[in-house]
Amino acid sequence: MIWKNPRIFWLSLILLVLFIVPALLAPWIVPYDPEEIHLSAQLRPPSLEHPLGQDQNGSDILSRLLYGARISLYVGFWVICIAGIIGITIGLISGYYGGWVDTLIMRIVDVLLAFPGLLLAIALVAVLGPNLNNVIIALTVQGWVSYARLVRGQVLAVKEQEFVLAAQTSGISDGRVMFRHILPNIIQPVIVQATFNLAGTIIAESSLSFLGLGVPPGTPSWGAMLSEGKDVLIDAPFVSIFPGLAIMLVVLICNILGDALRDHFDPKISR
Amino acid sequence: MIGFIIRRLLLLCPVLFGVITLVFFLIHMIPGDPVELMLGDSAMPTDKEELRHQLGLDLPLHEQYLNYLQDLVQGDFGTSIHSREPVAQEILERLPATIELMAGAMLIAIVLAIPLGLVSAVKRGSWIDQIAMFFSLLGVSIPNFWMGPMLILLFAIHLDWLPVNERGTLLHLILPAITLGTALASILSRITRSSVIETLGTDYIRTARAKGISEMQIVFRHAFRNALIPVITVIGLQIGVLLSGAIITEHIFDWPGLGNLLIEGIQSRNYPLVQGCVIFIAASYVFVNLLTDLSYAFIDPRVRLQ
Question: Residue A167: pLDDT above 50?
Fold first, then answer.
């Protein structure tokens, strides 16, 4: 595939950095306050002063888009970190110890996997209330499961290998065997998983915000911007077009990166 | 086969029990009194007490939980706060719309994905393959809550070809079904492609080629049918993606299905309804997965032995 070309990979990586850097620098580089309301300038189309136009509150869409990138990145970063740490730890314990510990953990995993897609996150945010930290909690509750299953499978594949047996017989603690010896040998698929997970989390956060269950009203999140844009689709389609394009591009970049990393770590998969 | 079915059914019980327990306690963590929501602030305290007693909300939590389990077994999902109708009835009223939407999305996904994946595999590495696979990558990257409004903008507003925001004729179904089916089509086309490529590399295909059978016959009569087995499994397993995507698609198109019922329930803080919808959707998903497993075991006897 042409986009699996190393050049496309590097281009995607650069584009991802181009998404991350402006998001981090947003407070210093945005041309206007993203929450500033100008009711006299509602739904103005793109112009030189406002390259992406103004929304129904007269707020600058470009500034809101840059701040929205911060929210996507913030949620993506924390969900991957927390879900990754919990999932890796539980997966290691489950695969390493086996027996009733493994059975118990896998039954919990089965229950959490019984909720398709965003269903559990929607129910959790409905209970906890819509705010950014609750979105992170809601997405983490199910997010760790994919890491745990992946790591458990990998541990089962390597735990009988000689380097693990050697570590065990040298008398070091189980924790050290798991984290110092097994984990570095199984981390590659976890990195691939995290890349896809970033794409999934960005879509999930935007979906929750689109449904009115993510960030509080008025907060410049991409999903919330799309939800607001839906009401003025006929008069001002640009309000919806730009946040959607932003989500699509970032998710596409993450998917290309994930694909490339997976092929790099496991060339057998690339067909 | 019967032993396999019984084993799979037994494995299902703890999962369903876990789902119900998790959702029950989750919903009961919500601050606020459902009775106040039903009667309003101005109701007499005696009326509130009476309703609380009627609904069993004055009982300790564990007793409420046991009663809920007992009711669920009898198909009673509780009573909706606002309409005062049984939740099960509201769910069943909305279910046909969701099934219709999912069936439409599935049909679009299959019709698009299987020929696309097949052509990609046969023309592996060609520009057709490159374009088809790029579109499949794009398809999983476009969020349906953006695709829906963009389709409305183009086909309903600018071109005025298709209606939106109603359920009725097949024409009303097209845009929501495309919105919901695109991601599935992308996944299926990739699976079809890799499965056909794998099948085309097997020994029996090499034998068929050695016998001088035409490439068309090899692809359609020998490779395609066998390559479809994993595709069918993935179709079954992806029903969860459709169920979850239906919540958002229904919200965009104001489609009167189960997903919209759930969102309405959350917005109006109708917790028995939310609880019923979440349990129903999760249980349906678990059952569909079971049916997929069973059908796979039926097609491929090796699965039963694992």
Answer: yes
